[in-house]
Design goal:
Layout (H helix, E strand, L loop, with lengths): L2 H7 L9 E4 L7 H15 L9 E6 L5 H14 L3 E7 L2 H10 L4 E5 L8 E8 L7 H12 L16 E3 L3 H11 L10 E5 L8 H8 L3 E5 L17 H11 L3 E5 L6 E4 L5 E2 L1 H14 L7 E5 L4 H9 L3 E5 L3 H11 L3 E3 L5 E3 L8 H15 L3 H5 L7 E7 L10 H11 L5 E6 L5 E7 L3 H19 L2
Parallel strand pairs: 2-3, 2-4, 3-6, 7-8, 7-9, 12-13
Antiparallel strand pairs: 1-5, 4-5, 9-10, 10-11, 14-15, 16-18, 17-18
Helix pairs in contact: 2-3, 2-5, 4-6, 6-7, 9-12, 14-15
Length: about 450
């Protein structure tokens, strides 16, 4: 499909988390991504004519990363931008490195927790935050108008590409310094790298701080990222923690911006509980800015109860770390997170960071001399059923008669929460039902699932 047929089909590139899609299908086609690089260069460089523009490019371990790394590099260099390639690195590392290298912007090539056949593009500005909506919209405008002519860039003005060899060490030292290089001697940790972007840096971070680290899934082959491993498959880390009698398990996702942990008993400690532990600890240390934590509508009701018990205020947003960040930036909050394991420690970094989060949890364990199970007891989790239904279209739920009817029937005489929404990155309808009676919420969720499948399911 050409760029011109793409215009007729769909005049948008950016979703809630950058650009995502299946390999070799629009928009994740080499020629399209090359043009994206040109359009981005045109927009990002227009305010700065006094020095050569410098953009960092990182990627996860997908085989298709090479395609898009060089496509972006070609597009950017053709427009006079210098490119600094840092290779496979976690998304939060790229967000940090844009500041460490005093670069003008950064790009991460990743589809996060999605399978290897998908890929995506995320842009970061020079402060490490994702590009504002209006900048993404301007890039889209130039892209669809084919408005990125490079003929005026003479040979002496084209950009150059460099490979940066010390980027990994910079990120490792930054993460360790966030807990003041506190020793982890005596800890036995199982670490699942999801065959993803953190397969080199994460093991080194915990090992250099003295932990005994049992490493799983750190042999990426370009196709096995997130495959039956990592935060999407916590059963792997649960089994390993029990087998090795470890103190804690840490499961990252493909680009290492999220983490799920497992306590010494083999119980999952999800993003809600991780956020609760950190919020309570910060509160006790008088380090919780504005006495507030930010989470999303997906957070378990038990999270609100836990925060209420500790006199901590909660602000909820739509699902997605960009909405968390917007709320945090707008109101000066420095701690936020999602049930999925995105935790944003705003005093340290501008995006979710699974490795950094896990390290801070371990630091809290050291400071309090408590096992993870004891810390996680600060929050009681209500039963919650989550179902993903593949859909052929994302029609507004309010316009789907069968689904709306099923939700209304489910809400009758039900003392709990029902949330039906679409994934921002995949063709999925996500159904969440939460309440005290697991049998009841399971039945209600399955009833809504059948309605979704009937009306818009694939």
């Amino acid at each position: 499909m050409t760029i011109y047929s793409l215009i007729a089909m769909k005049r948008t590139l950016f979703g809630t988390d950058g650009i995502r899609g299946e390999l070799n299908k629009e928009p994740m086609i080499a020629s399209t991504i090359l043009k994206l690089g040109q359009a981005a260069a045109k927009v990002l460089t227009k305010k700065n004519k006094k020095h050569r523009y410098k953009i960092i490019i990182g990627k996860d371990t997908r085989a298709s990363g090479y395609i898009f790394e060089y496509a972006l590099t070609s597009g950017l260099c053709s427009m006079g931008v210098d490119v600094y390639q840092v290779g496979p690195m976690p998304t939060p590392a790229v967000a940090h490195l844009v500041r460490s290298f005093a670069a003008d912007a950064a790009i991460m090539i990743s589809a996060s927790h999605n399978p290897a056949g998908d890929n995506g593009i995320k842009f970061f500005s020079n402060d490490g935050y994702k590009l504002p909506d209006e900048v993404e919209a301007e890039i889209e405008k130039h892209f669809f108008e084919n408005n990125f002519e490079a003929a005026h860039i003479s040979v002496d003005k084209i950009g150059k590409a460099y490979k940066i060899e010390d980027a990994r060490g910079r990120y490792i030292e930054f993460v360790k310094a966030s807990i003041k290089n506190r020793s982890l001697k005596g800890f036995k940790i199982v670490l699942d790298c999801s065959n993803g972007a953190a397969y080199k840096v994460a093991p080194l971070i915990f090992q250099e701080l003295g932990a005994d680290v049992i490493i799983l899934n750190n042999n990426p082959d370009g196709l096995n990222i997130n495959k039956n491993c990592g935060s999407q498959h916590p059963e792997v880390i649960i089994e390993a923690v029990k087998k090795h009698k470890a103190d804690v398990g840490i499961a990252l996702d493909g680009d290492a911006d999220r983490v799920i942990m497992v306590d010494e008993k083999g119980e999952i400690v999800d993003g809600d509980k991780l956020l609760s532990i950190i919020a309570v600890h910060f509160k006790n240390k008088n380090k919780l800015d504005k006495n507030t934590v930010v989470t999303t509508v997906m957070a378990n009701a038990g999270f609100d109860e836990s925060m209420k018990n500790h006199n901590i205020q909660v602000v909820r947003t739509k699902v997605g770390d960009r909405y968390l960040l917007e709320e945090m930036q707008k109101n000066g909050f420095t701690l936020g997170g999602e049930q999925s394991g995105h935790v944003i420690l705003g005093k340290h970094i501008s995006t979710g960071d699974g490795t950094l989060t896990a390290l801070h949890i371990l630091s809290i364990m050291v400071q309090t001399n408590k096992q993870l199970s004891k810390l996680a007891a600060c929050m009681e989790t209500y039963p919650q059923i989550l179902i993903n239904v593949p859909v052929k279209k994302k029609q507004p739920v309010s316009q789907c008669k069968e689904i709306t009817k099923a939700i209304q029937e489910a809400e009758k005489d039900f003392n709990g929460r029902i949330l039906v929404r679409y994934s921002g990155t995949q063709d999925l309808c996500r159904i969440m039902v939460e309440g005290k009676d697991k049998k009841q919420i399971t039945a209600l969720a399955n009833t809504i699932k059948k309605a979704v499948e009937k009306e818009i399911g694939k």
